[in-house]
Amino acid sequence: MKALNTDKAPAAIGPYSQAIRSGNLVFVSGQLPIIPETGAFPEGGVQEQTHQSLKNARAILQSEGLDLNNVVKTTVFLSDIANFGPMNEVYAEYFSAPYPARCAFAVKDLPKGALVEIELIAEAN
Questions:
Q1: Which of 44, 49, 74, 115 has the fewest Cβ atoms within 10 angstroms?
Q2: Do 37 and 102 form a contact (C-beta atoms < 8 A)?
Q3: Which of 61, 57, 53, 59 is nearest to 83 (CA)?
């Protein structure tokens, strides 16, 4: 098991790793839409936050020589299920067929008041 860490994504805000590689699988922790350089959320709403969460996840994968095309499963946490459509529009810009398996659902709250958080599992070829 190997912990992954990059300064191109936000540092973990608790006792967890940005990602863990175990064999040929990489488990990326839930990525809040934090801009690494500023520590703030991007201006705007769920679409801008979805872009940032996916950019953060991609940066972690890239630190291991992978990209979003290696993703086999994602989980999307939303602060409000009404944001599903706008999130899904942005999400579709980052993935192509065959699409990863996915689960998306609303939760009561997300850390720091985020509108979205995305975790993923990728497979190294």
A1: 44
A2: no
A3: 53
Residue range 67-83, pLDDT digits in tens: 999 999 999 999 999 99
CA–CA distance, 87 with 85 (Å, rounded to integer): 5
pTM: 0.96
Q: How is residue 92 written in tokens? A: 């579709």
Q: 101 with 73: CB under 8 angstroms?
A: yes
Q: Which fold has domain 2-123?
A: 60s Ribosomal Protein L30; Chain: A; (3.30.1330)
**CA separation for the pair 122, 23 (Å, rounded):** 11
**Domain ranges (residues) in the chain:** 2-123
Residue 125's pLDDT band (cuts 50, 70, 90): confident
pLDDT digits (tens, 9 = 90+) for 12-65: 888 999 999 999 999 999 999 999 999 999 999 999 999 999 999 999 999 999
